[in-house]
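Look over both lines before class:
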Amino acid sequence: MFKNILKISAAACLTIGLAACSSSDETSKSKDEKASSVGESVDYKITGIDPGAGVMKATEKVVKEYELNDWEIVEGSGAAMTAALKKAYDKEEPIIVTGWIPHWKFSKFDLKFLEDPKGVYGEEENIHTIARKDLKKDLPEAYKVLDQFNWTSDDMGEVMVKIEDGMKPDKAAEQWIKDNKNLVQKWTKGVKEVKGKKVELAYVAWASEIASTNVLAKVLEDLGFKVTLNQVEAGPMWTAVADGSVDASVAAWLPVTHEDYAKKFDGKFEDLGANLEGTKIGLVVPSYMDINSIEDLK
């Protein structure tokens, strides 16, 4: 009888062991299948923007750090990325894009950032105002407005949505200024009106920077300045401020996105500090996708 008990116990242990192994194998298989299905559903492609952007360089590091060897980062532009996102979202199809806050897409679509356990994308960063050397001496009134310019992601979001809904950037800026006179008064506090002095601003063609630059331009115009806006890529924008070709920009993302440019032109421009705090970059997906972390792509 004792032998029979031993046999039964051994059989039970074997059954439990096999079940445990089977459960472990199934869990591992499930994770692999999930990663594979997500990758296959988007052809192992991450839809990016222009190759010089900091979010693209950070995403290249993400691919290496998370060993996403089968994945490809598709270069393009901000406009092309949002067009692809809208097309996929309207059909509830899977898509993975490089994203950042503030951006109008978060107001239009239900999106989420993929978690970044390794912290490759870094902490939140800020958008800074940078100016050419001697701007304070040459155009003190414009310099003061630039120095006092500060708002929130919600403020910027209001302008971006107006533009995305079809309103021209200058008209969207004008409307926002009418609705936010108290904040604008803080930017212009102690500033005297001028007559026809010229100010030239540069910015990158991102929805956030189109919004901020047009708002600031309108504020300066209301003070009597003649404002010229130059839409360029990030490299030329920093170069222009550093060599004095333009007066300033309110579109410098630091410390991550434009880190290389800030280092390259160190000492050749003046950093007036953050005009908007709490931005974020990373990989973004529609909330209907069953994925939450970059690790799920491995």
In short: Residues 125-279 form a domain with the Dipeptide-binding Protein; domain 3 fold (CATH 3.10.105.10). Confidence is low (pLDDT under 50) at residues 1-24. Residues 34 and 88 are 20 Å apart (CA to CA). The first helix runs from residue 2 to 41.
